[in-house]
Amino acid sequence: MLAQVSIFPIGRGTSISKHVAKAVDVIDKSGLDYRLTAMGTVIEGEWEPVMRLMKKVRDAALKDSDRIYLSLTIDDRTDKKAKSRMELKTQRVEEIVGRELKK
What we know:
This protein is an alpha+beta fold. The protein has 3 helices and 4 strands, in the order βαββαβα. A 4-stranded antiparallel β-sheet has the order 2-3-1-4, with helices on one face.
């Protein structure tokens, strides 16, 4: 399963990088494979570990703010098992385009 999460506090000013960094630190310590992007973090894993991680990320964010925004998008595919769908998905697009793309 791939999950993309974006999380930030509401009402804590315009710069939220320190809050995002705390969430990414929780994700990094989880042991799950992930990729940080400018607009969210993509995490790869099975349902239960990813959902436990989302609770930890949420709980950590609520320590800094009374209100948070959390957007979670899931691509849950059961017909194909691959070790790293994140990499395979981007490799396939590069094959179609015919060149390596920015990551």
